[in-house]
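FAQ: What does the model actually see?

It sees only this:
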Amino acid sequence: MNRLQTELCRLYLPSGAAPPQGDASELTLSGADGELRAAVLELARPADWPALSAVWQGVQGDLGLPAPAIAINGLDGYQLWFSWTQPLPLEQAQAFLQALCTRYLPGVPARRLRLLPQPGQGVAQVPALRPDTGLWSAFVAPDLAAVFGDEPAIDLPPGPDAQADLLARLGSMRPSDMLQAWERLQPLQASQATEAPSAPPAPSALAPFAPAAPTHFTEGPGPGLSPQAFLRAVMDNPGVPLALRIEAAKALLAAGPTPG
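And it is asked to produce this:
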């Protein structure tokens, strides 16, 4: 197996599962007993990272859970990939994702949310080429997620080592983590069941990152600045046209990890 396959198996696949092949086939996240190693929360139609980032931030800051992987689906949405050290029954995994939606996405219509996998189904591989669009899905770093806006796809295959590096930093939720998170979610669940629906969070509460400090934009890498460092400077510079920032983000994903 290559490094990317190793990380996908470590985080998301049941014991003994064949490694993913990087094609358009689906990943089976459940074992023979039907219990899940992983589940995916998708917000799409349209893509909206500022909203979904509230979940990404909340599971870490409020619930004390490991960060889920962030993915662009290659078409119209962002995803969060959650992983467990011990498989969960499908019903428990779905209840957990639904509780996150109730807490962090109260104003989002249900038609824009997908809790994956559905019974008897798999989940589309990431990264992979989508035959219907000719574009790629990919795992992305938190500081790249917002750059894609309402076009969560790339037109070049992401570097497998760069994808592996992103996943290598992530961990799986332990049973004790889930118990603690569920206890913290329950009081809010109960209050929302008895009170009038609350207003959606203010935009400031959904903002994933503070604006980056302006970076001087030059025509090329300049002395002592590597091509990848230059691309990141372009991506982080709010004074650069958005189209160029998106192209820089795509180039970074395709280039792979920065040499150490």
